[in-house]
Amino acid sequence: MAVYRPKRKHRANGEGSPYQLAGGAWRGALTIGWIGDRPKRKFFRADTQAAVVDKLQKARRDLRLGILSQTPEKQTLAEYLTTWLTDVATPRCRPKTLTHYEGLIRLHIIPVIGKVPLLKLSPQHVQMMLTEKSATLSPKTCQHLRTCLRVALGTAVKWNLIQRNAAALSDASWL
Questions:
Q1: Residue 98 in contact with residue 148, Cβ under 8 Å?
Q2: Closest by alpha carbon to 152, among 69, 72, 70, 92?
Q3: CB neighbour list of residue 169: distance below 8 Å, 6 or more residues apart
Q4: What residues pair up with 27 in beta bridges, in sequence order?
């Protein structure tokens, strides 16, 4: 006589995986994208299993809506701008515009706010850079700095790397 054993329930792909850590806390992992052939995971930690499940559900919803960022948390503005120049600006821009963008980014943007993580870039960072540069540069060059950064960050918003464009939110009325 065969013994009936119910099948073990497995989670579906992308559903997340809450599990208990050695110290008693709970951790959950959610796959938010792929880098090459390797999954990019975001981890959540809480004191209870229910709290981790809530965080995972919110993250899954945000991922479906396109709100959850797929960028590495440690990617700096300098790294993103370098990538943007090669992947986006080079095929789209005229040669003189590309040279102008490269100079603005290399000489003015990266030295001042290039080390700021892309996810933590705020309008205050952009405003501080513009204020600092307005002491030595002409108002027109400061406008070009803001425009270059606004266009680059607009692409980052389209790619869901960031949720808002900090350059577009900075105040340009005094330039």
A1: no
A2: 92
A3: 123, 126
A4: 19, 45
Q: Which residues make beta-bridge pairs with 43? A: 29
Tens-place pLDDT, residues 132-147:
999 999 999 999 999 9
Q: Is 16 exposed, middle or buried (CB count within 10 Å of its CB: 0-12, 13-18, 19+)? A: buried
pTM: 0.65
Alpha helices in 135-173 (DSSP H): 139-158, 166-169
Q: Which two tokens stand for residue 136?
A: 């030595």
pLDDT digits (tens, 9 = 90+) for 95-132: 999 999 999 999 999 999 999 999 899 999 999 999 99
> Bigger pLDDT: 13 or 28?
28
Q: φ, ψ for residue 129 (rounded to 5)?
A: -65, -45
Question: How far is 5 from 106, CA to CA, in rounded Å?
Answer: 65
Q: With the C-alpha atoms ordered 110, 111, 115, 119, is the resulting torsion angle positive or negative?
A: negative
Contacts of 54 (CB under 8 A, 6+ apart): none
Helix, strand, coil percentages in the chain from 3-state DSSP, rounded to 5: 50, 15, 35
| Local structure of 164: helix, strand or coil | coil
